[in-house]
Input
Amino acid sequence: MLYQAVICALLLCIVIPNGLFHITNRRGGAGAPKRFRRALFGNVASFFAVLLLSTAFVFANTAFAADGSGIDPSGLAFIGAALSAGLGSLGAGIATGSAASAALGAISENEAVMGKALIFVALAEGIAIYGLIIAFMILNRV
Output
């Protein structure tokens, strides 16, 4: 039940700022960059707030071993899975952005390189898939 609430909160903290940005962007006007910065700040701030609260909930009900180590491997596994999926997706987004812009420039000059350019964009997307596979492998061990 708690995990479903955390997932819903994470989805809402992504959807609500983006929805507000798109609703206000349809009105037009000169303040679009300012609205974009506000929406991006709201998105990032709410995402990390929910992430910190969910991390606190993961460690709140932890029963530690009698040896006094104080480290719960299942909680660290969840953090590791989240980091591998999140950082993999972030890296894939950065790589796809630069590869796609270069591919569009190359295609506009010579249409014969379209297949090669799309392969480089697809290779950049593979980084996110690798991060997700590692996250699933970590979660299968818990």
In short: The two ends are 18 Å apart (CA to CA). Residues 1-61 form one domain.
